[in-house]
Write a structure and sequence with these properties.
The chain is α+β, with helices and mostly antiparallel strands and 139 residues long. The protein folds into two domains: 38 residues; 91 residues, no CATH class. 40% of the residues lie in helices and 33% in strands. Strands 1, 2, 3, 4, 5 and 6 form a six-stranded antiparallel β-sheet that branches. The longest helix has 36 residues. The protein is globular, with a radius of gyration of 25 Å.
Length: 139
């Protein structure tokens, strides 16, 4: 082999290493910034929950015994997200009530993403405060 081929091979290896290391460093910084954005504190969580209730329930009126917990970072599906636990008793049909149920509002990037209907792990030990706004939802 000639000396020129070895130089090109060495230059290629160095260039490949530089690009690879640069990509790793760049990806790491992006991931950190992305995590901060994904787990931004949900500042308007009560308003978000109220708006989502209109989309989630056909008739969100007549809710009673409503409570809400402060947002907390919890594990949801193997990832960490802000979760807002809510508890309420909604009408099942007519004037009958279904009984008190717990839900977890999951937030991504500081915005409401979805409800989890069986939030045992996410809402275990949550401290609920009265949530009268939920009990006053219009149709």
């Amino acid at each position: 082999m000639s000396g020129g081929g070895a130089q090109w091979r060495l230059a290629g290896l160095l260039l490949g290493a530089a690009v690879g290391l640069g990509a790793c460093g760049h990806h790491h910084r992006e991931a950190e910034a992305d995590d901060d954005g994904i787990n931004a504190f949900p500042t308007n969580y009560k308003a978000d929950i109220l708006a989502a209730m209109h989309a989630y329930f056909n008739d969100p009126t007549g809710i009673r015994d409503a409570g809400i917990a402060e947002p907390a970072l919890k594990s949801v599906g193997g990832t960490t997200r802000y979760v807002v636990c809510i508890r309420f008793n909604a009408k099942q049909s007519g004037k009958n009530y279904a009984g008190v149920r717990d839900f977890a509002g999951v937030y991504v990037g500081g915005r409401f993403d979805r409800f989890v209907e069986t939030p045992h792990e996410q809402c275990e030990g949550a401290t609920y405060a009265p949530f009268p706004e939920l009990q006053k939802l219009p149709r």
